[in-house]
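#structure-requests
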Amino acid sequence: MTGSGAERPAYALVAELERLLGDPTADTGPFSYAEIVAHEEDDALPPGALDLLRTWGFPRYIVPEEFGGRLRNLEHLFLLTRSLARRNPTVAVLFGSTLLAVNPVWLWGDEEQRARVAQGIISGELACFAVSEPDHGSDLGTNDTTAVPDGDGFLLNGEKWPVGNATRGRFVIVYAAVEGSGSALLLVDKEHLAPGSWTNHPYVRTVGLRGHDLSGITFRDTRVPDGVLLGRRGAGLVEILQALQITRTAIGALSIGTMDSVLRIGLRHAQERRLYGREIYHLPVVRRHLVNAHLDLLIAECTALPVARSLSAGPSRLSLWSSVVKYLVPTLGEEVVSEVARVLGARSYLREGVASGVFQKLQRDHAIASIFEGTTHVNLHNVATQLPAVAPLADRPAAGGEEMLRQLFDWSEEAPVWRPSGRALRLTNATEDEITRGWDPAVATAREIAERDLPVAEAAALGKVLGELSARRAVFYAAVAADSFDPASTQAQDLAAEHCVHHAAASCLYTWLYSFAAERAAEGGTGWLVLVLQRLLQRLDRTAGPDESHLPWLERLMLSCLDGPEYFSLRTVKAAAGAARS
C-alpha cells in the first residue's frame, strides 16, 4: 500500500497481512488463485488457509481490545477483510459470519459471556447467527423457535436454516421466543449441550461461496443452562436490527476487495490480449469499461470507510448510513464485475485460463453481497422510512456537523477505539445525518478553494459538476419533503436509491476537503474528484459524461498499480498526487 509519511498502524498491519497471504497469481499457496479454484471444484477451501490465518492471529481482530482482542475499531477490521476478500471472498465470509454472531455478545453480554466467547474466538473457534428459519426467511416477526424455562435453564426447540458456520461454529446465537417474555437472543455453547439433543443439517449446495459452511441446526428439547440470555428479555428483534448495522457496513469490504481483484484481472488481460494488431486496452470501449470500474471502486471506498469509522465516532448514525452502504457498495461491486466481464469477453465464462479461472468464482461469490444482512430491497426500504425526517433538513447544516465530518473523513488519524455498547445504537437516525446536511457548506468551501488554488479549467470543471449535483439535489429533497409516500412502494425504492447517490457524492467531496488539502493543486489531486462526481451524476442523468482531460492521468495511475502491492484506492491516488506535487 502506498502512503505518504508514517504509515498509520492499521495500514501497516494490512501490509503485513498482504505479505503473509502472498501473490494471488502465484502457482501455489492456500491464497493463490490456482489453489483456490482447484479446491473449489470439490466445494472445499484450500488446505492450510484457515490455519495460516489463525496462526497469524486474524481471529483476534474480531474481538475488541476491551475484551482481550486486537479489534480497535471497525475501520481496522474493514481494511483487513478487504485484503482477505480480494483473494478469497469465501474465507472473508466465514469470518464475517463469526463477526455477525459475536457482535451481540460484545454489545449486550455480561462479563462472563464476553470473556468465554472472546477466549474461544481468539483460540480459533467460530460462531454462527441462528436467526433465519426455513418457513420464514427474513420475516423476523415470526419465530417458531422456543425457549421454555426448565429449572435453572431452558429447553430449546426449533430449527434454524440456512445459517453460516452452523456446523463448524462452536457458539450459536439463537433467536428464540422465550415463554412469558417475548423474543430474545441466547448464547448457546455447543460444548455445554447434551449429545444427541441437537443436530446439524448437511451443507447447502450454493452457486458461490463453495466450501463455506452454510447449513442449519435443529434443537429438540435441548437443555441450555441459565445465563444464556443476551441483554433484556423481549428485546431480541431490536438487538438483531441493531447488530446488523455493523455487519451491513462491514460487507462493503467484501465488495471492495472483489472489485480490486476483478479490475486487476481485467486490466492485466487488456494489456496482454492482442486483437487487430495491438493490445485490446487501446480499444476505446475497453478503456471505458476499466476506467468506469476504477471510478466506481473509488466511490465505494469514499462511501464505506467513513461509515465504518462512525461505529466508534457516531454509532447512532448507523441505522441509516449502514443501509446506504449495504445498498450502494454491493451494487457498485456488481457493476464493476459486469464491466470487467465485458473486457474479458468469453473468458469471463471459463473456469480456467485467465487468472487460473478465478474471475467466475469472484463473480459468483460477490453475488451474495446484495443478499445477506438484508437484501437490496430491505435496505432501500430502511432508507426510505428515514427520508421524511432527513429531507426537510437537507439544506440545514447540523450543529457540530463539521467536527463529526472531520472525524469521519480526515485520514490523518485513526478512528476512535470502539467501546461496544448496545445503548449507543439506534433504530432510526431521526435527523442525525451530517453527511446529507453538510453538502451546501462543503460546496461553498470547495468553490473558494477552486477559485484560489486550482487552474482555471480544473476549477471550472469542478464548479460545473458541483452545480449540477446541487441543483438536482435541491429539487430532490424539496420534493421528498413536500410529498408523502409508502416506504414499501417502488417509488420509495427509487427515492432511496437517489438519496444514496447524493450521500456518496457528499462523501467524495468531504474526502477531498479533509484528506487532500496538500494535494488538491497537484496533477490528479482534484481531477479524481471531478471524475467520481461526474460518474455519480451519470447515475442520475445518463447523458452526463466524464471530463476527458482528467482521464490520461487516471489511466497512468491504474497501470502503475497493476504490478505493485498497491490497492486501487484513494490512498494510491493521494500518494501519486503528492509525488507529482513534490
